[in-house]
Amino acid sequence: MASTPPNVSPLGGLGIAAVYATTMVMGCLVGWLGTLPNESYFSSKHNVFNVWFVKSGWFWTTIVFAFWAWFARNIRRFFNAMLRWALATGYWWLITQWMAGPSLTDRVYRWSGGGCYPADSQGNALLRMHDTSLGCRQLGGRWHGGHDLSGHILLLVHASLFLLSELDGLREAAAASAAIYPQLARRLTTCVRTLLLLWWWMLLMSSVYPFHPLSEKITGLFMGLLYWVVAYKYILPRFKTPGLPGAI
């Protein structure tokens, strides 16, 4: 039997969002209860899944999504899908990378009282004027004192919901190609499911271990859900384009 992208319709859009929110809450609860050892492979930021996959999470999401959009073998659908990918990418970029200067994350950090400080008493006082976390660390400073929303939770939720929603919209077109190229379809489906499972697992691990306090995990979750709700509930349904995922 030919494979097609995973279908989110049994749970519905809000059901899928609830799964990710519940995962984070349960992970935080497990961490608070101390039912797992404080030190484990996943408690280290240097574990291979974090270094090679989560930190490059949008890259892997883009690769998998672009292959499925291409597999639909419809130029118009592919073009529209990549436009929606560009919007989702822009949202992630503004929050985490650059927003006419420092990213939104860095701006919130400064607005909430944080900043760049010398790593020791002999440090350069000019570091305090630096307004990005990356620049601060590159100069040997310490980014400290503000509200740092969890970029991991933001990315994992944002990427997962984007991928699930878009693949649901491409199911019909991809089914025709799957009938012609069943082996390729099975491989692509395996890649999609593996990536989504990995994103879910790393979301759980990011919630269990105290990389961020609870308030920063909550804002990461909120920002991860925000684009999906606004875009797929209110904005994208106004444009009747082929391959558009169903509204919530």
Explain this structure:
It is found in: Endoplasmic reticulum membrane. It is a single chain. The chain has one domain. 64% of the residues lie in helices and 3% in strands. The chain is built from nine helices and two strands. It has a two-stranded antiparallel sheet. Helix 3 packs antiparallel against helix 4.
* Number of alpha- plus pi-helical segments: 9
Structural class: mainly alpha
Strand content: under 5%
Order of helices and strands: HHHHHEHEHHH
Order of strands across the biggest sheet?
1-2
Which regions are unreliable across 5 or more consecutive residues at pLDDT < 50? none
| Mean pLDDT, all residues | 81
Helix content: 55-70%
Keywords: Endoplasmic reticulum, Hydrolase, Lipid metabolism, Membrane, Transmembrane, Transmembrane helix
Pfam family, one: FIT
GO cellular component, one term: endoplasmic reticulum membrane
Protein name: Inositol phospholipid synthesis and fat-storage-inducing TM-domain-containing protein
List the helices and strands and how they pair.
Blueprint: H1 13-33, H2 48-54, H3 57-71, H4 75-96, H5 104-111, E1 115-118, H6 133-138, E2 141-144, H7 151-180, H8 182-208, H9 214-235
Antiparallel strand pairs: 1-2
Helix pairs in contact: 1-7, 1-8, 1-9, 3-4, 3-7, 3-8, 4-7, 7-8, 7-9
